[in-house]
Amino acid sequence: MYQIHVKHFNIEQICYSGQCFRINKNSRGYYEVVAFGQYVELMQEGDLVTFLCSEEQFYQYWNSYFALDEDYDAIVSQIDPEDEYMLTAMKYGWGMRILKQELWEIVVSFLISQQNNIKRIRGCIQTICERYGTEKTNSYGETYYCFPTAQALSHISELELRSCNLGYRAKYILRTSQAIASGEFSLEHLKTLPYEEAKQELLKLYGVGIKVAECICLYGLHHLDAFPVDTHIKHVLEEHYVDGFPFEKYQGVAGVFQQYAFYYDLHPEFPS
DNA sequence: GACCAGGGCCGGC
DNA sequence: GCCGGCCCTGGT
Predict the structure, then answer these.
(1) What pLDDT band is residue A190 in, cutting at 50, 70 and 90?
(2) What's the pLDDT score for residue A269?
(3) Torsions phi, psi for A160 (to 5 deg)
(4) How far in angstroms lies nucleotide B6's C1' from the CA of residue A227?
(5) Protein chain A, residues 132-151, with a C-beta closer than 7 Å to any atom of nucleic acid strand B
(6) pLDDT for position A272
(7) In sequence order, what are the beta bridge partners of A2?
């Protein structure tokens, strides 16, 4: 167990923010996360966060994963005092952070996300993890699943993938898995590119359009400039930023504010 | 039961 | 650049 005080962190809001689909609250009241083939649980009381792992593991994986090494006070203070909508959205989503999730998982997750709702996205991802991901056991003897590799997904038939409720997205996932597994497309190279170049590169993938490319840049490559515009953000822009979104003022962090706006517009209800 | 929207994209024009 | 079609499911 490792405990740490963190400001501006709220695991519950992050869990339901629509940027991650595989963080779940368990019957022990802890949030479970699987990444890097590792399993961890955490819970929060005020600004005290308890991770059920060693200090070493915390600093090896989770400090960075949860972006706890970033100064969100500094980011939030960049909001224009006259930008009332963003101030409201930020207060509503106080504690939100953009996580540093694994790139491949993000690519697949946001291929699935298109024309889909969050509940069903979670279900689809859960299914492909259970079917095609490596099975492991946590310290309670419970089974958990790693996210399947591109190699693993590249061998499945489109028909079988469709049976994971993926619909027409199955062929996007299949072709993309094959492109990665064959080496035709390199995720490692993608990580070395600046935002705009990475975005252009991502658009070459079958099934990746501008919106999904922006999501992958923001959530998978941690380019905080990336600004996905979906139906919610479109709504926000039409309602509250008629003269255009102030990208100049928010350069370098627009994606974080996009997340606050998205979350505020989404207004999710937490399962009790 | 019918209809629609949900973190869109592809292909044909 | 615009538009029809696309899987499926939960909500009205």
Answers:
(1) very high
(2) 81
(3) -65, -40
(4) 19
(5) none
(6) 67
(7) A51
